[in-house]
Design a protein that fits this description.
The structure holds two protein chains of two kinds. Chain A is an alpha+beta fold. Chain A has helices at about 5-20, 30-40, 60-70, 75-90, 170-200, 215-240, 250-275, 285-295, 300-315, 315-325, and strands at about 100, 110, 120-125, 125-130, 140, 150-155, 160-165, 205, 205-210. Chain A is built from ten helices and nine strands. Chain A is about 50% helix and about 10% strand. Chain B has helices at about 15-30, 40-45, 50-55, 75-85, 90-110, 110-120, 240-255, 260-270, 280-305, 310-335, 345-360, 370-380, and strands spanning about 130, 145-150, 155-165, 175-180, 190-200, 205-210, 220-230, 235. The chains are: A alpha+beta, B alpha+beta.
Chain lengths: ~325, ~375
């Protein structure tokens, strides 16, 4: 579930509006006042448990906050994930902007939105380690999104803290994919709103584009993809809230469904906008480029479809049906 | 946000218990040879004997209280219907009556109609057909010309023609959308009403029409001076258009909109065990993700319908996505089984994939065309 009406979500919405609403997208990063307000309200700690120093808010409410701030150029989702990993390692939470990476302590790994992060949490086989960004030699790598990924060689830095953990890679994947799925569904919804506004205002042949059936049907199809993405993200959140250990299935499903839906939706959004949607002057690219980057993060939807298929193909066919009806097998 | 209203339903162990019961019954019936799994079973596989067995177990008429109903939740009914689709069981006889006409009678029927008809529906013995389309009124449903004229004694005289009425040749009743008074200028939604027609009434004739697959499940129904009793009017005189809108939400949002071809997928997974290429596995993973997502949407609507919400747009979304998915399942199963030499496939696999292909075209037609669905969604988006 994604509860955009909860107190936490409403507080996120207020912060977003106060910092310019849709206009917050202009510029490469959101203003400092935006992040300061997140810290002041403790939103970066909302999802971590009270024992760990967070607020222990339900994921449905945290997801609502993510929804209401997407796609502002802030490492909010990255910070939530980093703090969840720290909590799972029994380590102190990060106080500011943070991000995460997956892999062994002696390798080079991708850090999402690396530029913005002051802290980086590395999940490797059996351990969780907390690094300061300035200790990592992070280089920018080519990215579809303005919130560029970086890559760092972790062997060249020492963590400030490290702990053993029992959580598995699939648990961590479930956490990351689920939060990303909320972000993707939200950005798709935002781009749909932008597209509706555009076709209602833009006139050709003496009437608004919205009055052409060809346009209506393109956006109707895109809207059905937005609705599917929303459901996939909701089911992933429900599964993760229920039990992290079995959440991988719904998270992988969301990854595949939303990855596929993004192509259908963004191509329609770009098409109905015409050339203006293909510029840096107009807002659509803030949504499209992020969506195209997020769907690739941690492997694209094709790879994840195959992971699901590999698992299903080995099991008896009752498992397929159990998966369709209950989300686990 | 919350542009659309799709509640996510929490897992419920009681529902899974019911599911096991239904599965055990269906498996036993299938293994005893009482039915063969078929795609699109809810439309094309009818077996009154099977319907009576479902009725005897309390799995028809689950959602109403009294009048033979079992007073269970919409989600419980959903579990039963999705399991029958998964097994491709012959549920076609009772499907339409249970899905939309029983709820319609509960809301609009007279006491006598309820007492007479509902227990028979719940027993799996009384079947209904839908009378919406006409030769001159397809997607443009408000163009219906069938006319019910009120006679001085309060009875109605019905004349006209309905078409594409599935199962009308076996149905005991039909509910038709008819004109009871002229349109108000350009507003054609005015003056339409729904009437209950006893198919055995004098002047009702049914002509089956063979579909592309060679099956005659749909029909042309002609009304020639059919006299209907006064209480044949269902709901309000002139309120037919609004009533049809809420009826269609039930008709469009159910699991039959995306699980009709599931039996072909399951059969393929069984036959390709240990033989699937990586591309076949990727196809399986993608379809699985699509099915799981759409199932969530459709299940959420069942909950809304129970709460008395009529989610017209959400139902249209499920139907449009579901129609595409039905055909996508069939096409991906073709691709998957195409990797094996044809003589390694079972006769069952060959038979059901052929049925799946032949029965693809109507998915995006019946219950409202893709174009009509997209029009409904566009209206909700504020584009028309």
């Amino acid at each position: 579930m994604i509860d955009t009406q909860s107190l936490i979500a409403q507080s996120a919405a207020k912060i977003h509006e106060r910092n310019g609403g849709r206009a917050v997208l202009h510029g490469d990063v959101a203003p400092d006042s935006y992040w300061d307000a997140i810290i002041e309200n403790g939103l970066h700690l909302a999802w971590a448990s009270e024992d760990a120093g967070g607020f222990g808010a339900p994921l449905s409410e945290v997801a609502g906050a993510i929804w209401n701030m997407t796609p502002a150029a802030l490492p909010f989702v990255e910070t939530l994930i980093a703090n969840k990993l720290l909590e799972l390692g029994g380590l102190e939470l990060a106080k500011g902007r943070a991000s995460y990476a997956i892999g062994a302590a002696d390798g080079v790994h991708i850090i999402p939105f690396a530029d913005a992060a002051e802290d980086v949490v590395l999940f490797g086989d059996g351990h969780i380690a907390h690094y300061k960004s300035h200790d990592l030699e992070c280089r920018a790598i080519d990215s579809l999104s303005p919130d560029a990924d970086g890559a760092a060689d972790f062997s060249k830095a020492n963590p400030i803290k490290c702990a053993h953990t029992n959580i598995s890679l699939s648990n961590v994947e479930a956490i990351i994919l689920t939060l990303r799925s909320v972000q993707m569904a939200a950005a798709m919804d935002g781009a749909l709103s932008l597209s509706i506004d555009h076709v209602s205002a833009r006139e050709q042949f003496g009437r608004p584009l919205s009055k052409f059936q060809a346009i209506q049907h393109q956006l109707a199809v895109a809207a059905s993809q937005v609705a599917a993405a929303n459901m996939a993200a909701s089911q992933a959140c429900a599964a993760l809230s229920n039990d992290m250990k079995s959440a991988w299935h719904e998270a992988a499903i969301a990854k595949v469904q939303i990855g596929e839906s993004i192509e259908g939706a963004t191509s329609a959004f770009q098409q109905v906008h015409g050339a203006i949607g293909y510029t840096m002057e107009y807002d659509l690219h803030h949504y499209s480029r992020r969506l195209w980057a997020w769907r690739d993060a941690l492997g694209n939807e094709h790879i994840w479809a195959q992971k699901l298929g590999d698992d299903l193909a080995q099991k008896d066919s009752n498992k397929l049906w159990r998966g369709v009806t209950t989300g686990v097998w | 946000m919350n542009r659309f209203n799709f509640p996510a339903i929490k897992p419920n162990p009681a529902l899974e218990e019911l599911r096991s019961e239904v599965q055990a019954f269906l498996l036993a019936e299938k293994e005893a040879g009482y039915f063969h799994s078929e795609p699109e079973c809810w439309m094309s596989s009818s077996d009154p004997e099977f319907s009576r067995k479902m009725g005897a177990r309390g799995w028809i008429g689950m959602n109403w209280k009294g009048y033979g109903g079992h007073n269970r939740s919409a989600l419980e009914r959903y579990i039963v219907t999705e399991e029958t689709l998964r097994f491709g069981a012959p549920v076609g006889a009772h499907w339409i009556a249970d899905r939309q006409h029983a709820p319609m009678l509960i809301e609009h029927g007279t006491e006598a109609q309820k007492a007479d008809i509902l227990p028979r529906i719940a027993a799996g013995e009384c079947y209904f057909a839908i009378g919406l389309s006409e030769p001159g009124a397809g997607s443009d449903l408000a163009a219906v010309k069938t006319k019910a004229e009120k006679l001085p004694d309060g009875t109605w005289k019905l004349n006209g023609q309905k078409i594409w009425s599935s199962g009308a040749q076996h149905a005991h009743y039909m509910v038709s959308l008819v004109r009871t008074s002229p349109p108000d200028g350009r507003n054609r939604h005015v003056g339409l009403s729904q009437v209950l027609i006893d198919m055995s009434a004098h002047g009702v004739s049914v002509r089956p029409i063979s579909d592309l697959a060679g099956d005659a499940h749909f029909n042309e129904v002609t009304y020639d001076d059919v006299i209907l009793p006064a209480d044949a009017l269902l709901g309000e005189e002139g309120g037919g258009w609004q009533q049809v809108t809420s009826e269609l939400a039930m008709e469009r949002s159910g699991p039959e909109r995306f699980l009709s071809s599931y039996v072909t997928l399951e059969q393929a997974v069984i036959e390709l065990q240990g033989k699937m290429s990586s591309s076949a596995r990727a196809r399986l993973g993608l379809i699985y993700a699509n099915l799981r997502t759409l199932r969530g949407m459709s299940f959420g609507i069942a909950k809304l319908l129970e709460q008395g919400v009529s989610p017209e747009t959400e139902a249209a979304l499920v139907k449009d996505l579901g129609n595409s998915l039905e055909n996508k399942v069939t096409q991906n199963v073709r691709a998957m089984i195409g990797e094996l030499p044809i003589n390694e496939l079972s006769d069952t696999m060959k038979r059901i994939i052929n049925i799946g292909v032949l029965r693809s075209p109507p998915n995006s037609l019946r219950g409202g065309t893709t174009e009509v669905m997209r029009g409904i969604i566009a209206r909700q988006l504020g584009l028309r």
